[in-house]
Amino acid sequence: MAEFLTRRRFLSTTAGMAGAAALGGLAMPARASGSLTVGFIYVGPRDDYGYNQAHAEAAAVVKAMEGVTVIEEENVAETQDVQQTMESMINFDGATLLFPTSFGYFDPHILKVAPANPDVRFEHCGGLWSEGMPTNTGSYFGYIGMGQYLNGIAAGHATKTKKIGFVAAKPIPQVLLNINSFLLGARSVDPTITCQVIFTGEWSMAVKEAEATNALADAGADVITCHVDGPKVVMETAASRDCFICGYHANQSELAPEKYLTGAEWNWATVYTDMVKKTMAGEPIDNFVRGGLAEGFIKMSPLGPAVSDAARKQFEDTNAKIMAGGYAVISGPMKDNAGNVIAKEGEAFEETDVALESMNYLVEGVIGSTS
Amino acid sequence: MAIGADITGPGRPARAWLLPLAGRVEGFVLPVAALLTGFLAFAVFLLFLGKSPVDFYALVYKAGFGTAFSWTNTLSRAAPLLFAALCVAIPARLGLVVIGGEGAIVLGGVMTGGLAAALAGWPALIAMPLLAIMAAVVGGLWIGAVGALRQWRGVNETIASLLMAYIAIALMNHLVEGPLRDPASLNKPSTAPLAETLKVGDLPGWNVHWGLVLGILGCIFAWVLIERTTLGFSARIAGGNVRAAQVQGLPVGKLVIGFTALGGAFAGLAGYFEVSAVHGSANASLASGYGYTGILVAFLARHNPLAIIPVALLLAGFEASSGLVQRRMDLPDATMLVLQGFVFVAILASETFTGRIDLVGWLSKGGRA
Fold this sequence. Notes:
The complex is a heterodimer.
Chain A: H1 7-24, E1 36-41, H2 51-63, E2 68-73, H3 80-93, E3 97-100, H4 106-116, E4 121-125, E5 137-142, H5 145-158, E6 163-168, H6 173-187, E7 194-199, H7 206-218, E8 223-227, H8 232-240, E9 244-249, E10 260-266, H9 268-281, E11 288-291, E12 298-300, H10 309-324, E13 328-331, E14 334-335, E15 341-343, E16 348-350, E17 366-367
Parallel strand pairs in A: 1-2, 1-3, 3-4, 4-5, 5-11, 6-7, 6-8, 7-17, 8-9, 9-10
Antiparallel strand pairs in A: 10-12, 13-16, 14-15
Chain B: H1 2-7, H2 13-16, H3 18-48, H4 53-66, H5 68-92, H6 101-118, H7 124-153, H8 157-177, H9 211-228, H10 230-240, H11 242-247, H12 252-279, H13 290-300, H14 305-329, H15 335-350, H16 359-365
Helix pairs in contact in B: 3-15, 3-16, 4-5, 4-14, 5-9, 5-12, 5-13, 5-14, 6-7, 6-8, 6-12, 6-13, 7-8, 7-12, 9-10, 9-14, 10-12, 13-14
């Protein structure tokens, strides 16, 4: 069994392959000097109307840049799979800047591959980098909770039943912040509004997402948003139940233009073009990059036709305040939905506050439980 | 052999010795022919898409087997497939179609991740085997339960194992997000990370973990068990004809439960290696479909544990090349799945030719008129 493991065998097969490649006319892409090959890796399909599409749209912007070759791979699991994909992009395509975009790619996968490839830069989406980790890795993330807060304002004006709904994947801090922000945005319009949340338990599970959306509509919710990898099913199901919808991750307005109020979108093109430019110019990139609406890391979908003038005004005013900086969605006095105090009088958590990154509660007015 | 006696009539002695050989040849030629047929059919499919099959297979070769890196890629993907395939192949010798190995993989991983925290201070020499054994035990119990349901309650093992895989994944999510969750794992709920001393390393000089070697040893062990022991012989008889086995007084019930449990134990080991050699903690990434690819591997290998080794390498090579195919030929990720589907159908269809080709005649006369 060990025979084919020998190095000699590898060399001979490699040589054989070189011949086969020549015969087959299989040209390796030439690496011109001054050019950069950038690899994007997605955990799901790149046309999922969601998380992956948001990255793929930005990759398309990078692709249009001068001297840049973009290579992409979709449906790469958070296993050995992604380690090998990274190595493959480095070995076969000469990629020197990689964007493995899924949260679960970082630890242990990027952390294992990066030290073995010191000349390659690994930029990970999720904001996990900390001091002491390999210096050729970095991470970036955006404060998209603010986007859900603005979604909530549009929802608060649109709801007739005073019930809004949220289809969520897992009760983790990033998701909880979005749920809470969505409700608090709506409550800034009318404090009697409640938001029911249903957790599907999976990042991508179309059947459960449809069931959850229907259950929310059955319970009376008339504006629905979500935080799952691909919002397409939630958006289409909600619209078919005559609910208004607020988008997430990417722009889903074309799925139901009349029902789409607005949406919290990632704007990764800002991050990617900046990092690619810096890499090509030989400038260093910060290992830890964050931004929100003001920095252009996230953006809102254009307001839909169902948004009233009053809603538009409050939406735009609040947007301006957020852009100015220092806006806090979680500010005291505030309780969670079990009655525990989460912010005392005078206490406020701005979007940049690290305390928000370990959020483990649902605010008062959210119907649901984190466990 | 009894069958040999039928053929060895007066005037036909030359054929008798060829019979076992013919069986071997058929066991090799049929799957290979089926494989090639699958490739050919897929080539036609590619032509319809306007893509070059030559480029495609050249890329598959290059990315799966063409360079040292390709081999690293392929071998590291093969390790879990070996275990997952054993979970299908071992019960299959008893005529049982178990397709829920994914559940045992996931639970083996959770057991490893959960128990490792409790064993943090233990010497690796004791803790590591203990973790592996416990992962195998939980996998064995899970798939063994499928065998028990089959034996005692008459529940179809195929459906039961598949449904139990969903239960296992739900159980994993519950445990990893609840009782076993490391509070520090904020946005990706996981068990506490394994202590460095408990992690399984790579083979010396290779970027491939030890699970590969254990998987190969597992295949050899399973082959010896099935082909060279009375236990395996009993199982094969029971798989061929349960009534006959019962009349002979063979413990069919124990065999069913024992063999399903053994298969599950191997799947549990796959989970052990995923956590201890790849992920470093148990989380939702454990349910990544190795159990299902293992079904394909086992069927392609015709449930022969030794054949699992090359077949697992072949399929791992396919998966290793999936990325390059996506990037170079602009084909979707599902391409490899379609190819696997073509091959699978071809293999299943080839089963109908088993025993119908007169290889003895061919071999003794150099082909018939």
